[in-house]
What does this fold into?
Amino acid sequence: MATLTTGASSTFDIPTTQIGRIAERVQNQSVLATLSPERPTVYGNVQAVKMSRKPRAQIVAEGAQKSSDTAAWDTVTASPIKFQTTVRMTDEVRWVDQDHRLLIVDDLVNALGESAARAVDLIGIHGINPITGTRAASVTSYLNQTTNRTTAGASPTDELIAAVGAIAGGRYQATGIALDNGYAFGLATEQYADGRDRNPGMGFGSDVQNWKGLHVATSSTVSGQPEAPDTKLRALAGDYTQVRWGFQRRFPVEVIEYGDPDGGGDLKGNNQIAYRVEGVIYVAIFDLDAFAAVDAPTTP
It folds into this structure.
């Protein structure tokens, strides 16, 4: 059972199933987690390595000398990025009976899990600090920095084909697409001039998982809203094997009873307690050319 222990700052005892639900919400609600499996690491700078040139075979004539070939490796270093979510609540939450308290824990776990999932996307795709909605100076590399860009118009299908083609024309092959909710609706409901659906079977685009053989994930984090002003990004097609991300520290949930943990005033003086969840992630991007963006037109 969940308990609220006493003390200036103490760990919030949540059953293992609850902790698992936080991780599950990250997997289910983050487009980056959906399209690129998490690779946890130990804390510290991460140096990811990939083979940029594979050795090539040689045709050998009878009695001829065999030669060797070389392999080349690219490395990318990603620094730890720490984020946290703090929620203040009235301290009367501690006075309710155990059943009511568990309902509050459910709501809290859901909210913290959602904030963590959205943080993964906002950091990895946009380099945004979720609480301010502005670019974070500590995040120097994020997916929306790609220079492969297409402007959205009247045909989401044609625009996505152009984005995927921009990648296929290089060294990569797209494996997935992240879609903004509204753009997914436009894609799913697009029709030919005679009224036939261009993308049959996609419904209204709310639960799309596949488009022309590519994995699809849909979320408002693609546009960055509501945490940030509209970034104008509507879709991000890419070879998601070219991004590595993962947690280095997992969601310690803490209840804080005293002091001023967030600059909002003394907790006791305001009859409040605070709940806090923190995490540390890394995001390593091998090559931004492996991604192509579709942007909404900029209004003059």
